[in-house]
Structure formats: C-alpha cells, structure tokens
C-alpha cells in the first residue's frame, strides 16, 4: 500500500514509512493512494469474528508490504487481548433506535487506547527493524496524552514529550499523564490552548533545527496508523446491527476530526453507513464548516467537554483532500492561506462531497448536561460529557427525522464517565468511581514542567531533553 500527502509534494511512503513519519514533510497528512474496498460478501464473512481477528482483517490491506500476515495477527491478538472487556468495544442498547459503542475499556479509559496500544507495538517493531531511536512529540487536550504515554512508557528506542494546555484538562486526565514514572516520559503544561500545543507540534516537524537533530514521531491522529486502527470498531458495531444488509448511522463527538474520519474511511471501504453525525460542543468550527462552508477558527471556549475544546481540526484536511478531487497543490495553497488567516471557505466540491455523508449538530453545555440526565433517567447509564454531546446529536437526529426511525443510531462513547466526575455529578447527581484498573491515581506524585505558550520554549525543552537522554 502506498501513501500520499494531502499537500502533494512530500515523498510517497509505505505503511512503515508513514507510521514513523507522522506528519508529511510538506506539512500535509498522509492517506492511502487509493481506498481498499470490501465486497458485500466479504463484509458478510466478517460477521461473528472476535475483535482481534476482525481488526487484523480490516487493517490488512493498509499494512501490506510492511507487516506479514503473521506479524499483524500476533500484534492484534496481543493488543486486543488485554482490554477491560472481552468484547473490547461493546455495544449497549439504550432504546429501539439508540445504541452506545463503549470505546473506553482500554487502560486509560478513552477511545484513544484502541489505536494507541496498537501504535506502541508498531513503533517497537519498525524501530527495532531499522535500529533507530525516536523522539515522540504530542499535543493533548486530555486523552491522547495518557493513552500515548501508557502505550510507550519504558519502551526501548522511544522518548515522549507530551504538551497539554495548563489548567484545561480534568484532574483525572492530568494525573493519568503526570503520575507515570518512566525515564522516557516528559509532560509539559503550556500556557495556552490545545490548538497552540498542536500548532507547536506541527511546527517542530517542519523546523530544521529539530528535524536535523532528532528523528521525530507522532502519536496524534496526524499519524495515519491511529485512524486505521479506529476504522475497525465501525465494522465491528455495524456488523452486529445487520451490516451489510442494514445501514446504520453514527454520532461521533468530534474535536480533531480523527474519530469521525475513521468512519468515513469505513464507508469508503464499502461499509454501508447511512450518515455520520459530527457532534460538536460550542467550539463549533466543524459545525459551521459542514453547515455553510465557513471554516474559520475563533477563540477556544473552555467547556465541560475539555477534550473537544479544539478550533483547528487537523484531520478535516484529509476530508477536504479526498472530497475536493485529491488536488495536493490546490489544497496546499488553501491550507497555507488558512494557516495565515485562520479562516477559509470550502470549495463547492468539498462542501458537496462532505454533505453526501456528514451532518453536524452542535450541543451547548445545557444540552450536554440534559443528554447525561436523559441517559441516566431513561436507561440507567452514566455517560461522560463528551459522549453526552454525541448523544444529544443522536436524539436530535432521531427526533427530527434526519435519521429515519428504522435506522439504528450508534453514539460513540468516547470516554469513561469517571474521567470527568464533577460534570457528571452535576448532571446526574451521582459521582462515578474510577475503575480499579487505573489504580491509586490520587495517591501518586505528579511530575510535569510548566512552560510559556511560546513555540521556542517547547522546542528548546524537546532539544534539551533529547540531548540529555
Ligand atoms: C473523550 C473524547 N471524545 C471525543 C474526542 C474527539 O475526537 P476527535 O479528536 O478524534 O474528533 C476526544 C479527543 O480527541 C476525546 O478525548
Ligand atoms: N482530544 C484529543 C486531542 C488530540 O487529538 P488526536 O486524536 O489528534 O490525538 C486529546 O484527548 O488529546
């Protein structure tokens, strides 16, 4: 399988190459040069497979040439044999039309584990093959950070520097990162938003002072391997509800557009998906882009869904590329203008292409809290606020007829409620307890470094610690 950059001028790479590259050298994101497709009969044959077998089958076309069948099968068995639920991502029915896909049974209690546990194994395999070391730099609004740290802590050949916005992640999220004691893990709290942290990370990949000194790696969803592993649970859930004979719709709480883009990939691979609902909080750049073509970033408003307090959604670029005719040069120009002005309009082709599958619905804080209360009152489920944004959108879509009554709507439950106990308790009157598998989070010492919001502060920290390692 060959991978090309959305901005058209970076070298074409194989799967091993894109996994280790993260961001393309032209600033773009890598995508397969063409989408692999499963026939209806092939999709039907996937029914009833355990998660790890399904994962290997869905991912196989993407890794061709870089992993043997045996290597991939063994990796999937190792990664998905160790989740907190035998089904890995269990599907829970709420009522006749609504379902929750629980993606939080990994070690750090958010959907990020599903892909990052896999990425940890991929890094180890590919780096050992090349006898290379790698410095991972990542940005997190709360969940990617802990999942990535868990996946690579104490592994040979990698170090990780994780940037989070100071004071803008929950206590549980912060402690899941800062209480990990491993010589290869560094946490930075920056004065700024997640968008600032993400911009710093992307800058490092294009800064010759950094790339000349270090082999950088990415754990954010700019790394194609992240999205590839997330495609699997769309197949897994749709098959349980009747695919390929019956279509399902998904509501996906969205920030960086990675999780919902994985749904788009599943559709491009042949999975019959009725609609992908992009559920946003009040940081609603995607809602505006998908509703009237206005992709302009304002300031970030802190909410009870901090992981989605994002105004520049990295992976939207992948959609614009694919829907807009895969013209790398034109997209490079469009994204360059966006980076300078923080505003752009979608072209007609991009807007029409996106509207064929995507609809966006926005939830404010009250609507989010009401969705939590509804889930608890009507179904006895305690859900996290990010899932609440998705559930609000699902209920609106069902009630307004946007999704017909006979089409199941699956809301992606992206985090465990105990990661956000204050917001959950306010909404439903019950304080969710942390599962035992996360251990004594509040009894452990925290370690992190506070830095300013300047790019140079982050870059110098990375260069200094790489030199000391
Ligand atoms: C709990 C939770 N829900 C939803 C999202 C949004 O996912 P994405 O950034 O892939 O759109 C995130 C962050 O990525 C998250 O941590
Ligand atoms: N919500 C995310 C933000 C980073 O997203 P990613 O999927 O690109 O890693 C987080 O929890 O850090």
Q: Could you give a short description of this structure?
A:
This protein has 469 residues and is α/β, with parallel strands linked by helices. It is 45% helix and 15% strand.
Q: What does this 3D model show about the protein?
A:
- The protein has a domain at 91-107 and 226-428: Rossmann fold (3-Layer(aba) Sandwich).
- It contains 19 helices and 15 strands.
- The chain has helices at 15-21, 40-45, 51-63, 69-80, 112-130, 143-152, 171-178, 194-205, 208-211, 224-240, 258-268, 285-292, 316-323, 328-341, 348-355, 365-379, 385-399, 421-428, 455-468; strands spanning 3-5, 30-32, 91-93, 98-102, 134-139, 158-165, 185-190, 216-217, 248-253, 273-280, 294-296, 343-345, 358-362, 409-413, 449-451.
- A 6-stranded mixed β-sheet has the order 3-4-14-9-10-13, sandwiched between helices.
- The structure holds pyridoxal-5'-phosphate and the ligand N[C@@H](CCOP(=O)(O)O)C(=O)O.
């Amino acid at each position: 399988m060959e991978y090309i950059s959305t901005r058209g001028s970076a070298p074409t790479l194989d799967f091993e190459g894109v996994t280790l590259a993260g961001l393309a050298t032209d600033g773009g994101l890598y995508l397969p040069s063409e989408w692999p497709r499963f026939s209806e009969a092939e999709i039907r044959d996937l029914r009833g497979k355990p998660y790890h077998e399904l994962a290997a089958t869905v991912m196989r076309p993407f890794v061709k040439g870089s992993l043997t069948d045996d290597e991939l099968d063994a990796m999937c068995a190792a990664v998905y044999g160790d989740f907190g639920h035998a089904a890995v991502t269990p599907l829970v029915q709420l009522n006749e039309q609504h379902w929750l896909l629980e993606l939080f049974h990994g070690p750090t209690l958010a959907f990020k584990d599903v892909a990052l546990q896999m990425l940890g194994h991929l890094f180890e395999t590919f780096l050992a093959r090349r006898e290379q070391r790698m410095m991972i730099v990542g940005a997190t609004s709360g969940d990617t950070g802990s999942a990535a740290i868990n996946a690579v802590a104490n592994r040979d050949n990698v170090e990780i520097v994780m940037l989070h916005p100071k004071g803008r992640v929950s206590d549980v999220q912060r402690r899941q990162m800062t209480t990990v004691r491993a010589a290869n893990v560094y946490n930075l709290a920056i004065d700024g938003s997640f968008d600032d942290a993400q911009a710093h990370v992307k800058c490092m990949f294009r800064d010759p002072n950094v790339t000349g000194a270090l082999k950088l790696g990415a754990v954010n969803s700019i790394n194609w391997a992240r999205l590839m592993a997330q495609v699997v649970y769309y197949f897994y859930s749709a098959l349980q509800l009747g695919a390929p004979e019956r279509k399902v719709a998904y509501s996906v709480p969205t920030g960086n557009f990675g999780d919902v883009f994985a749904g788009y990939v599943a559709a491009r691979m042949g999975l019959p998906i009725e609609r992908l609902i992009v559920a946003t909080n009040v940081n609603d750049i995607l809602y505006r882009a998908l509703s009237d073509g206005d992709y302009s970033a304002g300031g970030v408003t802190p909410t009870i869904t901090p992981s989605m307090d994002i105004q520049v959604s990295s992976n939207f670029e992948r959609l614009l590329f694919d829907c807009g005719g895969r013209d790398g040069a034109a997209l490079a120009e469009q994204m360059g203008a966006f980076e300078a002005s923080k505003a752009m309009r979608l072209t007609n082709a991009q807007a029409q292409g996106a509207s064929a599958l995507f609809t966006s619905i926005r939830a404010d804080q009250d609507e989010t809290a009401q969705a939590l209360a509804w889930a608890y009152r009507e179904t006895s489920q305690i859900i996290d606020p990010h899932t609440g944004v998705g559930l609000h959108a699902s209920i609106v879509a069902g009630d307004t007829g946007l999704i017909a009554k006979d089409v199941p709507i699956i809301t992606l439950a992206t985090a465990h409620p105990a990661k956000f106990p204050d917001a959950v308790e306010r909404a439903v009157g019950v304080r969710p307890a942390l599962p035992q598998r996360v251990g004594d989070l509040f009894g452990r010492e925290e370690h992190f470094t506070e830095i300013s919001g300047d790019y140079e502060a982050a870059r110098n920290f990375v260069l200094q610690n790489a030199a000391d390692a």
